[in-house]
Write a structure and sequence with these properties.
Elements lengths: L10 H12 L7 H16 L15 H4 L4 E2 L26 E6 L2 E2 L5 E2 L7 E4 H14 L9 H9 L4 E5 L9 E7 L6 E3 L2 E6 L4 E10 L5 E11 L4 E9 L5 E10 L4 E8 L4 E10 L5 E10 L4 E10 L5 E10 L4 E10 L7 E10 L5 E10 L5 E9 L3 H9 L4 H17 L5 H23 L1
Parallel strand pairs: 1-8, 2-7, 6-9, 7-10, 8-11, 9-11, 10-12, 11-13, 12-14, 13-15, 14-16, 15-17, 16-18, 17-19, 18-20, 19-21, 20-22
Antiparallel strand pairs: 2-3, 2-4, 5-6
């Protein structure tokens, strides 16, 4: 019997029972056995509080106190084509391969897969579970035993992207996955779960976008699992631009094989509260891992980035650059951990966190961490917090540039170091425009 702790109300066990009734025969699948274990574990953990070290600076009480109702497949709000204009979320250029999910459910109408190489599998995970449920259950590897949000996702996930790139396969064009929230009659939640398997000597560029146009408060709790095979190259870009009334918790778990190269770009712009967890395991030699992040927050937004890179084997390199731009009463959090195990000699790990505060009220809690158990390594970390250089602002003003525009130019230059690392040109241009709009919005709020 599932018992609720004092860290959440009892609607999650009751919602899970309702979910089981919607599954029909699928409740006997191996995947559902994992779901049952996950909801039991969530009942034991409850939502984290600020007394938990990993959540010391991020209060999730606004999520815990609201009954966010799941939207089940077949509900009238599961996919509502008449309410969605996907074109407003499209980047410039052709999207030959894209998966679109509306309120957590796959939309065949908005998706298109026209140029996949032979042997590649790109589909909704709901479809995969219907046809190969055992395969899905074997690849649900993200640990939920110490993470309440991952446990909640594992218990309630219904859909997401299933991507399998076979050995020696190159995708010439990026693959786009859109998660769009349009809303229901009351506060709702979606739990997208995506699995990305990239084979030996293969190459994939994946762009995940989380976007919202819902008027009601909603919660997106997403988990993405990536396995980068030997000598593979994977570039992952995540764009989080939820509605300002939304809550977003995203976790990405990455396993890298020998001589693989994994690069992540995480761009956070939306949501009232956003938390990004990235955990990467370097459990073979010759691995390259790069994590880049940019958070831009106005008003009372809270942006939290947590990263963990586990160097378990020798001769691996990792690089982290996370930047935040905070205006108004916004709050930022960065916690980056690098573990270097005893056998991980010849490790080269660098971690940098930089924050630009555009107002006196904005705050940042930054905590870079190194735990090193090997003796032949090169590891560095650092954090800086500052404001715009008024001498630089004055220089631009002396060239006839208005004060607000001058500050935006300098702020954009600060952020461009991250945006310019995105290799896909249409995505890079799209992010540049989003950043321009967000800086203008922050300036207008300050002037009011």
């Amino acid at each position: 019997m599932i018992q609720a702790t004092d860290r959440y109300n009892d609607w999650y066990p009751s919602d899970f029972l309702l979910f089981e009734r919607h599954l029909n025969g699928a409740s006997a699948s191996p995947v559902h056995a994992i779901r049952q274990a996950a909801i039991s574990r969530f009942a034991e953990l409850g939502f984290p509080t600020t007394h938990d070290e990993e959540w010391k600076y991020t209060n999730v009480a606004p999520i815990a106190r609201v009954h966010f109702k799941p939207i089940f497949a077949g509900d009238k709000h599961a996919v509502a084509p008449n309410d969605v204009d996907v074109r407003q979320f499209a980047f410039a250029g052709t999207h030959a391969n894209k998966l679109v999910f509306v309120n957590g459910h796959f939309s065949k109408e908005f998706s298109s897969l026209t140029s996949l190489p032979k042997g590649a599998i790109v589909e909704s995970i709901a479809s995969t579970m219907r046809n190969k449920g055992d395969w899905v259950s074997r690849n649900l590897t993200a640990h939920f035993h110490d993470n309440a949000f991952t446990a909640l996702n594992t218990a309630f996930f219904q859909d997401g992207a299933m991507i399998h790139i076979p050995d020696n396969t190159v995708l010439d064009e990026p693959l786009y996955v859109f998660f769009i929230s349009t809303g229901g009659e009351s506060s709702f939640v979606s739990h997208p779960r995506s699995i990305v398997l990239v084979g030996k000597s293969s190459r994939l560029s994946l762009v995940e976008s989380y976007l919202g146009q819902a008027n009601t408060t909603y919660f997106v709790n997403t988990v993405t699992e990536v396995v980068a095979g030997e000598q593979s190259f994977v570039e992952h870009t995540k764009i989080q631009n939820e509605h300002e009334n939304a809550f977003h918790v995203g976790s990405m778990h990455v396993q890298q094989r020998a001589n693989s190269n994994f690069t992540s770009h995480s761009i956070s712009l939306g949501a009232a509260l956003a938390r990004n967890n990235v955990a990467v395991s370097l459990d073979a030699e010759g691995i390259e891992c790069t994590l880049n992040g940019l958070a831009v927050a106005n008003g009372h937004q809270l942006m939290d980035n947590h990263t963990t890179i586990d160097h378990a084997k020798p001769h691996c390199n990792s690089h982290q650059l996370y930047k935040s731009i905070l205006n108004g009463n916004a709050k930022g959090v960065f916690n980056g951990k690098i573990f270097v195990r005893q056998d991980a000699q010849k490790t080269d790990a660098k971690q940098t966190n930089k924050t630009l505060l555009l107002s006196d009220e904005a705050t940042i809690d930054t905590k870079p961490q190194l735990e090193i158990f090997a003796d032949d390594v090169k590891c560095t970390h650092g954090a800086t917090v500052g404001q715009l250089d008024e001498e630089q602002v004055f220089y631009l003003r002396s060239r006839g540039i208005e004060t607000g525009a001058a500050r935006d130019i300098l702020t954009y230059a600060f952020a461009s170091d991250v945006i310019n690392r995105v290799t896909t040109e249409p995505v890079r241009d799209y992010l540049g425009q989003l950043l321009h709009d967000r800086l203008e919005e922050g300036r207008e709020r300050k002037e009011v």
